[in-house]
Amino acid sequence: MKAANDPWQLDIGTEVEDEFGTLNPEELSLNKAIKNAMRGKVDMMTCAQGYVMTKMGNHGDARKIFESCIKNGYTSAMTWMSYMEHNGFGAAENPAAAAAWDKKAADAGDPIGQFNYGLDLLRGHGVELNKELGKAYIDDAAEYGLKDAIEVQKSDYDYNVVTPDADNWKYEKRIF
After folding, report:
1. CA–CA separation, 136 vs 130, rounded Å?
2. Which of 28, 36, 85, 130 has its CA 20 to 30 A from that of 5?
3. Which fold has domain 95-163?
């Protein structure tokens, strides 16, 4: 609550929309990012707000922002959608959908997408196991200079060098 004489709490006025435009528009807020995304008006700042929202647990709005960013060509939003599918944020965990987002980002030239899809292929997680193709995607990411990809290359493509032990259960083959 704002104190009446607190000089640090400025009342900029209430946002009012009419046929002439918006008076006192909300700026640099999560609500503004959602509004922009819903209108298809996105930029790097709006897309970055999707990251903030998913870290806050607001996965539904994060998905809306990422989907709008993807429609506008932001490949980093594809890797965040993969992260959400992979971890079951805002929907049931879906390794196949996660791998599909990784591939889409990889095929668009995103080095994180290349790296992640390479790992998907090396593990056979969400996609059919294909070590040779996985290595090729890792190589593409390493050529870009991605340090984790270079580390996997140097380890003879042992993806465990970049996988925390706590995540190993996620990649085990499930029988049911």
Report:
1. 10
2. 28
3. 1.25.40
